[in-house]
Design a protein that fits this description.
Blueprint: H1 2-9, E1 20-23, E2 25-29, E3 32-35, H2 39-53, E4 58-63, H3 72-84, E5 88-94, H4 98-107, E6 112-116, H5 128-135, E7 138-142, H6 153-156, H7 173-192, H8 197-206, H9 221-228, H10 237-245, H11 259-262
Parallel strand pairs: 1-4, 4-5, 5-6, 6-7
Antiparallel strand pairs: 2-3
Helix pairs in contact: 2-3, 3-4, 4-5, 7-8
């Protein structure tokens, strides 16, 4: 991905681009996600990214997942050094717990926290979102279309055989059959607002605040243009409530991700105290 980005970056003045990349996930071992947040790994990943991207600095550098064996102060200490050296401008976290966000922010200001947030994934609204706002941290929702669910293709057609969604609990068997009802509800509301279900889902997240910047992924120009069209959708307070109420969270069937990724999500992302040693 970074090598591909290098080819695109060469076409534009560097100062016109806001570049974000991340480190932390090393790979998979058995069914576990391997995460590394040691200072040495932080630096080696950053320097590797700079080389692959062909740039002198990264605007926003995320810790992709939290290494729960390393005090967050150690990870942040190295990131702070990289800021001071001019190799990165801003620091971000992804899938971090409230405790980890607070402790990280005390070492060096966190600019953005990337979390899954969509119409059918809203758990972070209870504690994570209020904390980010209290600390002045931007919120970057990933999978704002519910891992493509509100794009509709998987619902109207089917999940492609080679898609990673086949392992997602919400897209499996009876869960998927039950969840399709939510798409129908959003589809009707989208007609009311003169947009597509995907545009309505993105407009809903955009209207959550000026500090919210969703990052819907796409591989097609048409879908990119359609996503941008969500900016034309105007929603009032009562509209937002009606859309939220169309998908009661306690009725969503299945976890948002598989067990191995749940284990490295924000719910399990506290790190050891700085003064303790991990056996």
């Amino acid at each position: 991905c970074e090598i591909t980005s290098f080819q695109a970056l060469k076409q534009f003045p560097r100062e016109k681009i806001q570049l974000a990349t991340k480190f932390g996930i090393v790979g998979m071992k058995s069914s576990d996600v391997i995460v590394n947040g040691t200072p040495e790994y932080v630096r080696s990943c950053c320097e590797g990214s700079l080389k692959r991207l062909g740039v002198e600095y990264i605007d926003l550098y995320y810790q992709h997942r939290i290494d729960t064996s390393v005090p967050i102060e150690d990870t942040m200490g190295e990131l702070k050094k990289l800021v001071e050296e001019g190799k990165i401008k801003y620091i971000g976290l992804s899938e971090a717990s409230t405790d980890t966000i607070k402790r990280a922010h005390a070492v060096y200001p966190i600019t953005a926290v990337q979390m899954e947030w969509s119409l059918w994934t809203r758990e972070i609204e209870d504690e994570i979102i209020p904390l980010c706002r209290e600390l002045g941290i931007g919120i970057v929702p990933y999978s704002p279309l519910g891992r493509g669910f509100f794009g509709g293709k998987a619902v109207i057609e089917s999940v492609p055989a080679n898609s990673f969604l086949n392992s997602n609990p919400r897209f499996q068997g009876e869960n998927f059959h039950q969840n399709k009802n939510f798409y129908s509800r959003v589809e009707k509301l989208a007609e009311k607002h003169g947009c597509t279900p995907a545009q309505l889902a993105l407009a809903w997240i955009n209207h959550q605040g000026d500090d919210v910047v969703p990052i819907p992924g796409t591989t097609k120009i048409k879908n990119l243009n359609d996503n941008i069209g969500c900016l034309r959708v105007e929603l009032k307070g009562e509209d937002l409530k009606e859309i939220s109420d169309a998908i009661p969270i306690n009725e969503v069937a299945g976890d948002r991700i598989t067990d191995n990724f749940i284990r490295c999500s924000w719910k399990f992302a506290n790190t050891p105290p700085k003064h303790s040693s991990v056996a």
